[in-house]
Specification:
The chain is an alpha+beta fold and 342 residues long. The chain folds into two domains: 2-140, no CATH class; 143-332, no CATH class. Helices cover 22% and strands 30% of the residues. It is built from three helices and 17 strands. Strand 11 and strand 12 form a beta hairpin. The longest helix has 45 residues, at 23-67. The protein is elongated and about 80 Å long.
């Protein structure tokens, strides 16, 4: 009897081990969590895309609306109205919109939203929310930068090289164009005794007044060599842009350390320190660079070395070519309009 019971028990266990009728339910239960999680992830991704589109559309509208009125107009009321409308129109969470003038012509709107997650929360480490953001920049194009001719220019009249300085407008969005974004190239000074009466370039919004130093070797006393292509010569372009946050001038110059800039509060202060001014002096120096915006009423000093290290001898005093230019005035053109630049 005992052997019979043991045999029946063994057969029952073998049949149970071969029985697959409950496997589907077990596998379904095991797979339910990741399947729901992946479905929730897809749903939340779609919601995030929709939320970002909503933020971008509303921030674009705000940036254009404020920028089109220009920096001198109080647009707080229309901005507040657009903010309220945008937040009321979002069913995805509490959105925030903040706007500020980031330059004389650019109005930036930052939009942010913390999006609550749905089923994707069950995925380990997914969290309960997802941040979504957008940024828009509207540019007022009813202004232009107006510069006056140099208040002072001095190019070493005893140098062996011929040096000429040009002013031009640089558009960083057009560097792939044939002119590399450089327009209105205008000669303003040289050390050959030339008198220039050319009007200064007028740079549009988005462009910056920039400078070219043209250096023709051992040619100052021989006018026929000044612009002769076969004579050894070099050109250095500042391709000036504004620092993205602090809005001071930045210069390219292909990495050559040949330019010193100093922002002067007045023309009287744009002299060397030994004469009561603020300009540095002395040889073998690291060139100083202004780190404040060139605002109306101030003056920018540009001091050049005509031969940078690696291209001839240099005493590193940065006064071979000296130019002082008054900071530009912003003049309304009458075109009260704006465009999105980001």
């Amino acid at each position: 009897m005992r052997r019979l019971l043991g045999h029946k028990c063994s057969r029952t266990l073998r049949r149970f081990g071969r029985d697959q009728r409950g496997n589907f339910a077990l596998l379904t239960a095991l797979m339910a969590v990741p399947l729901f999680g992946l479905s929730g992830l897809a749903l939340d991704y779609a919601r995030a895309v929709n939320a970002r589109t909503h933020l971008q559309t509303r921030s674009d509208a705000m940036a254009l609306a404020v920028a089109s009125r220009g920096p001198n107009v109080d647009s707080s009321a229309i901005l507040a109205s657009l903010q309220a409308d945008a937040m009321a129109g979002s069913a995805m969470g509490q959105a925030s919109f903040t706007g500020r003038w980031t330059s004389a012509t650019d109005y930036t709107v930052d939009a942010a939203l913390v999006l609550p997650l749905t089923l994707s929360q069950i995925i380990p480490g997914a969290g309960a929310t997802m941040p979504v953001g957008a940024q828009s920049v509207g540019r007022y194009i009813g202004l232009k930068y107006v510069y006056k001719p140099p208040e002072f220019s001095s190019l070493d009249p005893e140098a062996g090289d011929f040096n000429r300085v040009y002013a031009y407008c640089f558009d960083p969005t057009a560097v792939s164009a044939a002119n590399k974004g450089r327009s209105q190239m205008t000669a303003i000074s040289d050390n050959g005794g030339t008198s220039y009466i050319n009007p200064m370039p007028e740079c549009r919004a988005g462009e910056m007044m920039s400078f070219q130093l043209y250096n023709s070797r051992n040619a100052r006393t021989n006018k026929s060599l000044w612009d002769k292509a076969s004579n050894e010569h070099y050109s250095y372009f500042t391709d000036t842009t504004l620092h993205p946050t602090d809005k001071y001038e930045q210069y390219n110059l292909d990495g050559w350390a040949i330019l010193e800039t100093v922002l002067c509060p007045s023309l009287e202060k744009c002299v060397v320190k030994s004469k009561g001014g603020i300009l540095p002096e002395g040889k073998n120096r690291t060139p100083q660079r202004a780190t404040e915006p060139c605002s109306p009423g101030k003056y920018m000093y540009y001091g050049w070395e005509d031969r940078p290290p690696g291209r001839g001898s240099s005493d590193k005093d940065y006064d071979d070519i000296r130019v002082i230019i008054k900071c530009p005035d912003l003049i309304a053109t009458g075109d009260e309009n704006a465009l999105l630049v980001r």
